[in-house]
Amino acid sequence: MRLKHHARTQLAITLIRRGMRTSLVGRISGLRPAMLRELHHEIHGCKPLPGQLPSTGSLLGSARRQANASVFAGLYRAFGGAAVQRSIDIEALLTGHRIYLEQMARLAASGTLGPSLDINHGWVIARDLTTGLVLFRTCERCTIPYVAWAYSHRVVDCPICALKVSRPSRDGADRPPHDEAVHSPPAGNHEDHITTTDP
């Protein structure tokens, strides 16, 4: 029991250091909120900030953001395999996100994909892959794999093809093509299926 608790505490420390919200860390580790708040204060020197997680629609709300999310999701699946569509693989999530940030750092100068997704954004994508709200697809035109929102109403669903036909704004803002209508996902609870490794 002590070893199991130690492993969960170490996992919680890793997740908090990576910037994950304590509410998510609690779901994954099973540790009490009071302990997680104390760990957060010791690691970051402040109390955890409240707030809601982003919606799937906002993370995939434009071709640029969808392409950004596709880079992370592709790396996540590369480390977790097809099983990530059934349950969240925490180790694959952490590794995939670390490699994703390294790739985004190389693209930062171009601003091609906009701001990087943080670990909480990655969690939302990983979660919604298990519920079917986010789907892996491969474009028939450019053959590039990408992720799409199950309720997307775009004429061009592939973000790479959509970016090719879109016109960048003068100030470099994230202006989606005219066919990128985005609607909020239907309300409902998400059940998280989490895969962790205990000694």
From TrEMBL:
Transmembrane segments: none
Keyword set, alphabetical order: Activator, Bacterial flagellum biogenesis, Cell projection, Cilium, Cytoplasm, DNA-binding, Flagellum, Metal-binding, Transcription, Transcription regulation, Zinc
GO terms of biological process kind: bacterial-type flagellum organization; positive regulation of DNA-templated transcription; regulation of bacterial-type flagellum assembly
InterPro entries found in the cross-reference section: FlhC (IPR007944)
Positions with biased composition (Basic and acidic residues): 168-182, 189-199
One Pfam family named in its UniProt record: FlhC
Disordered, as annotated region: 168-199
GO molecular function, a single term: metal ion binding
Protein name: Flagellar transcriptional activator FlhC
Organism encoding this protein: Thiocapsa marina 5811
